[in-house]
Amino acid sequence: MNLHALLTAREQAGRPIRVGLIGAGKFGSMFLAQARRTPGMHVTGIADLSPTRAKAALQQVGWPADCATARTAQEALQHRTTWVTDDAAALIAADGIEVVIDATGNPAAGIRHCLLAFEHGRHIVMVNVEADALAGPLLADRARRAGVVYSLAYGDQPALICEMVDWARASGLHVVAAGKGTKYLPTYHDSTPETVWQHYGLTAEQAEVGGLNAQMFNSFLDGTKSGIEMAAVANATGLTPPQHGLAFPPCNVEALASVLRPRADGGVLEGTGMVEVISSLDRNGQRLPRDLRWGVYAVFEAPDDYVARCFAEYGLATDDSGRYASMYKPFHLIGLELGISVASVALRRESTGAPITWRGDVVATAKRDLAAGEMLDGEGGFCVWGKLMPAADSLAIGGLPIGLAHHCRLKHPVSRGAPLCWTDVDIDQNQECVQIRRTMEREFAPVPAAPTRVA
Prior knowledge:
Number of strands: 15
Largest sheet: 6 strands, parallel
Oligomer: single chain
CATH superfamily of the largest domain: NAD(P)-binding Rossmann-like Domain
Helix content: 25-40%
CATH class of the largest domain: Alpha Beta
Number of domains: 3
Strand content: 15-25%
């Protein structure tokens, strides 16, 4: 609770945290909006495939017109301005950079940026949860070996869930379930970039005017992003993914403790100590009152009657037994909160969530009957969606991770709803991201893990 004081001390000492941001999209722009208002923080450089777009983002979020005039990182350091470039590798290598933020969303690029950050002794904050789901446990291990911190991004839901799990455990409470809310119906798994906007209440023309990316938005709708984020949470907390994938039960905030408890006690969970995502829609498509579409939650269990009585005395929402209680946060502010991670890794050398094990994986799953010879188009596309499963199960079937299910051709037909396997695709095994993933599979191969209590 002293990050602001530590930041202020760095500001007063003339030693602000020097940050390199890669990716000036929505998440990066929201960070930039607050970074200029944060004492003790200097965005030394921004790398984006389009420097013009990055400079436009700075103007959009209110930076002064002369803020990005530096021609080099050294000039930016000397005058406390910002260097904008299209060379992410040069930004990572620039003298003085302390913390690198990857906000690209590209798993292959994220892995590359991590490895470069470790090589140059930079801490890294991974907004790029796609890369984390693909190879996070190995990347976090490489960071530890390099003497730097690898962190999930505060403001994004996985880090906020990890914080809530840590709070409960540090209070001596057993976490029964943790996760987030989203808008979900079973039919969304079939959604494609051609059908996505009808579910958001937009026309294709409105989306185009707004500059919205159909494939990216579709990955949120078709269940892929939920699977990726819950894999990150499972790997950072040791919680267990459901054996048959996320169930997305309809649930509002009042019902958390009743729904997110083991089946043996009347809930939907196959056991205890699970990750799960709840839907803000009933199965008939009606929005639930007091839903948690934008928020995160944790459900925990009273260890005895005394603690259960305390739950009641202090107004916690519990199930009908009084044993299970919930805590939730109804929102997340993505990039506006990202500075918490930057300050934590630089000033405390503590992550705001990082993989400690390999418990969850996200496997490419056919949206329709796929034919041999088809080219996969990745998450949010026309071919596959990403299904969360225990990592041990993914490894056992040779599941193809969703982060690699793009720009590779199918060798065999795959039926609708079936997982894709490594053997189903023609993929370049020499790609760095493929090699890193394969190394993680060897070094972090999990043993099958059941929930603490099976219904």
